[in-house]
Amino acid sequence: MQRELAQRLDISLKDDAKTFKRLKFNFKKNKHQDHTELLDQAGSDFKYSDCKDEFWNPEKFSLLYGTPLWDQASKSERVLLNQLYWVGYYSQIISAEIATIYFNQTAAAGLYGIEDFRLVCETLDFESMQERAHIEAFKIVSEEVEKEVFGKRIFTYPMRPYFSETMIFQNTNFFKRLWKRFQLQSYGLLSSSNAFIACQYLSVRGLRTLNGKIVQHQLSEFYEQADDKENAPIPSKISYYHFMDESYHFNSSNIIGTDLLKMLKKPTAFEKRIATMGIEGTLKDHSHFTSTVNGIFWYEPATFNAIYKVLRSRIFKLNHQDAIHMMELCFCQENQGMNESFKTHQIALESYKNYLQEIDYLNDAAKDGGKMRSTSIESHLKSNKKALNSFKRKIYA
Fold first, then answer.
1. Distance between CA atoms of residues 202 and 189, nearest Å
2. Where are the alpha helices (DSSP H) in the chain?
């Protein structure tokens, strides 16, 4: 009787025994296999000199793999391109996880007023702790590599606030960044005070994690399949530890953002619109692809300055004219690397569409992939050619 009187709302997580059991099991398993200590130790032990001559990922996960630069690269240059893929890829993951930590907390706050949702909050708290360990390990490796190889930042950056553009190479400008900041800050306020939007954030997180899952499983296999795991390159160990944690994060995103969401009362028109905007924003962010880092959906022209610095560095030693010519070959002519990256984008699109079918508040355009559907090799080449001409004029100036 006391318990019944204590209930302030019509629903409780425990009303759905199956969902509660799944979430509890996932949380328990994640805590049991937590890789935080291993990640901290890996970061502490990392010395670039110990593994600078080794691949850290499967060969196809190399910077500009399959492009003319890769085709002409020496063995040592290919090793570096493979390592720079790791640096570029996980620099992007850092940005995403900074935002995740913040929105995990606002989502948990949005659920405080609902009975028996302690388990959800503790799940998100624990995952945020893991994200902080991921970020630290990625930063240690990436920053040391760029310091040793280039003496300056190329893909890395100082810590950034959650409201920065999530995609570190984006088609943006001052006003777009300002508008994005306003949207993210407003979304944080809404998700911290609305149970539906709080749960729906996990739908967005699940969509973004689904993209990572496609690539990160393959990255983790490099360590998992190593004959001598003890002496495997530390960055490959970090890839594996990270993927193991993230597999549980994807499960919790799916449970909270899909099953648990269905337990709430039907959303208002306003809640539906905010939720749809969150999904549409992700599909827009992922409407590009890049040969630079296959599996990360950057706006490729935004990477031109970084790639120019790589080509002009003491490693590749290209003069200005040769660097620009190589960029034209890699970015403005169809090649294997471009086709491989587009293929990854299309695999992600189909995965997203399957994931979104169960979300009944979405409109048909979003369920069908939104802005991602307009991506093509032809539009990609057209955009790159125009942007590279502009880049050349800027460099000459």
1. 15
2. 2-6, 17-33, 36-45, 48-51, 68-72, 75-110, 118-149, 174-191, 195-224, 234-254, 269-285, 304-312, 320-331, 336-356, 364-367, 377-396
In a 10 Å sphere around its CB, with 0-12 CB exposed, 13-18 middle and 19+ buried, how is residue 22 labelled?
middle
Mean of the per-residue pLDDT values of the chain = 92
Q: What is the pLDDT of residues 345-362, one digit of tens each?
A: 999 999 999 999 988 889
Both tokens assigned to 200 = 């729906």
Amino acid at residue number 176: K
- Taking only the tens place, the pLDDT of each residue in 108-147 is 999 887 778 889 999 999 999 999 999 999 999 999 999 9
Helix, strand or coil, per DSSP, at residue 354:
helix
Mapping DSSP onto H, E and C, the string for 83-105 reads HHHHHHHHHHHHHHHHHHHHHHH
